[in-house]
Structures are given as structure tokens and as C-alpha cells.
Amino acid sequence: MFVILTALAALISLMFMASFITALTELKREHEEVRAVLERNKPF
């Protein structure tokens, strides 16, 4: 029983870490895109 609970907790934490990393990479990519658009729209 304890082993099953531990494995379940590990699985949940792994999924949380994976989603967190995915969200971070998405945020970084969006930030770079916004910066590129701002650079393009600069008059100088």
C-alpha cells in the first residue's frame, strides 16, 4: 500500500514538473516573439 502511494505521489510530481517546464518554455518563446515584433516595429 505504501509503495503504491509513493509511486502515485512520484507520478503526480513528475507530471507537475513536466507541465511547469512546458509552461516556462512557452513563456520564454512568447517573450522572444514579442521582443522580435517590437524590434521590427521600431522606427529607427
Describe this structure in words.
This protein is an all-alpha fold. It contains 1 helix and no strands. The longest helix is centred in the middle third of the chain and has 40 residues, at 2-41. The chain starts with a helix and ends with a helix. The mean pLDDT is 93.
DSSP summary, beta strand count: 0
Low confidence ranges: none
Q: Whole-number radius of gyration? A: 19 Å
Beta strand %: under 5%
Distance between the termini: 66 Å
- Please, how many helices? 1
Query: What share of residues is helical?
Result: over 70%
Bulk shape: rod-shaped
H/E series, N to C?
A: H
> Structural class, from helix and strand content?
mainly alpha
Q: What's the overall average pLDDT, rounded?
A: 93
Q: Major β-sheet, in short? A: none
Task: Give a concise summary.
The protein is an all-alpha fold and 44 residues long. It has one helix at residues 2-41. It is built from one helix and no strands.
